[in-house]
């Protein structure tokens, strides 16, 4: 049975502002709450009146209040509250890296999966942190502050976060793509509305059967808009690992590794097109019983009206009786196969153009004599 370490947080009635710029090591553990707001400026002004303190940070796309009593870090994110509500995430900021590590070890010992990030730049600060999901899929952040920054963080700009300000001010959300993400270890519960993009992070690296994997891919396909895409990020292998998978560090949560070619074939069989590898490490990240495990990112598209004419019919000419490409597709000499135009371009770039005959869309083709 794991031992719960108390946070020793007292909450007196008096509200006191934090010092101007105290060092993180002097602050102790603080509760952290992040809210989605429709206007950083308006909500910051409101909170300044309610709390009686000025924001510790105030930018066009971010604000933060810090209190000593109660010990609180309250941040505001420019995401107009919609169906998901006003809560962005919550958690705790620790005084030291040792405190953070102790908390992560205690939580993992209790059987809860965590995702760690080292030295990330976000919210105008450099932080080391880990995340967990609670049973209702709320996101909890546990972090230490390593220093302030003058920029928000890599890849995070006001335009990318909130889109067109006119649309947001009018309450128009239709122009913003619907993106849903699942992370390894959290409950797999797809959104009720169709998505433009679904991201699966380590989803297939937890124990599951082939039938369960197929069901998840089918559900993802059904919950995408026509023309929407799925992005998969995980460890894959070239052949099924034998025996239990035992990996070091945060990768210890990986207990299942799909075979890359089989996964690509499953995507195509369910109806995805333009399946392509966007990341495939030539060097293995890990070895499991002699089987190399590689970081892999796959992107695939659900066909839409614009994709009807993007297929290419090919016949493999030889010289071999059959070949297998990097996606696991078996090409037999003389047989017709239909692939996406993207795949055909990849085959040409690989120098295989002369090994295939391109069949015009208006042509008929007979398998006789093959």
Automatic annotation (TrEMBL):
BP-aspect Gene Ontology terms: response to cadmium ion
Q: Which InterPro entries match?
A: ArsI/CadI-like, Cadmium-induced_rsp, Glyas_Bleomycin-R_OHBP_Dase, Glyas_Fos-R_dOase_dom, VOC_core
PROSITE patterns per record: VOC (PS51819)
Q: Which Pfam families match?
A: Glyoxalase (PF00903)
- Stretches assigned to the VOC domain: 29-145
PANTHER family (UniProt xref): CADMIUM-INDUCED PROTEIN CADI (PTHR41294)
Q: What is this protein called?
A: VOC domain-containing protein
């Amino acid at each position: 049975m794991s031992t719960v370490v108390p946070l020793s947080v007292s909450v007196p009635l008096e509200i006191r502002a934090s010092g101007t710029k105290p060092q993180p090591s002097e602050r102790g553990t603080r509760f952290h709450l992040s809210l989605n707001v429709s206007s950083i400026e308006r909500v910051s002004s409101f909170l300044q009146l309610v709390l009686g303190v000025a924001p510790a940070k105030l930018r066009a796309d971010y604000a933060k209040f810090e209190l000593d009593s109660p010990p609180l870090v309250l941040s505001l994110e420019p995401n107009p509250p919609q169906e998901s509500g006003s809560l962005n995430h919550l958690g705790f900021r620790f005084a030291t890296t040792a405190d953070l590590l102790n908390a992560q070890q205690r939580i993992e010992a209790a059987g809860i999966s965590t995702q760690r990030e080292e030295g990330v730049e976000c919210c105008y600060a450099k932080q080391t942190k880990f995340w967990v999901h609670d049973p209702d899929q709320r996101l909890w952040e546990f972090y230490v502050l390593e220093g302030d920054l003058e920029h928000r963080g890599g890849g995070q700009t006001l335009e990318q976060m909130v889109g067109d300000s006119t649309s947001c001010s009018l309450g128009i959300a239709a122009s913003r793509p619907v993106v849903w993400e699942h992370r390894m270890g959290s409950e797999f519960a797809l959104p009720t509305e169709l998505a433009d993009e679904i991201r699966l992070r380590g989803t297939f690296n937890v124990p599951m059967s082939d039938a369960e994997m197929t069901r998840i891919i089918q559900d993802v396909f059904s919950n995408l808009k026509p023309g929407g895409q799925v992005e998969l990020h995980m460890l894959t292998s070239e052949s099924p690992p034998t025996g239990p998978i035992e990996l070091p560090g945060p990768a210890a949560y990986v207990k299942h590794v799909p075979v890359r070619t089989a996964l690509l074939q499953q995507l195509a069989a369910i109806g995805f097109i333009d399946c392509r590898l966007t990341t495939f490490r030539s060097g293995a990240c890990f070895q499991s019983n002699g089987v190399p495990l590689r970081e892999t990112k796959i992107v695939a598209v659900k066909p839409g009206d614009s994709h009807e004419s993007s297929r290419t019919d090919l016949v493999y000419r030889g010289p071999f009786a059959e070949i297998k490409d990097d996606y696991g597709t078996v090409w037999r000499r003389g047989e017709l196969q239909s692939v996406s135009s993207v795949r055909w371009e990849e085959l040409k770039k690989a120098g295989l153009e002369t090994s295939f005959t391109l069949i015009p869309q208006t042509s008929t083709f007979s398998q006789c004599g093959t």
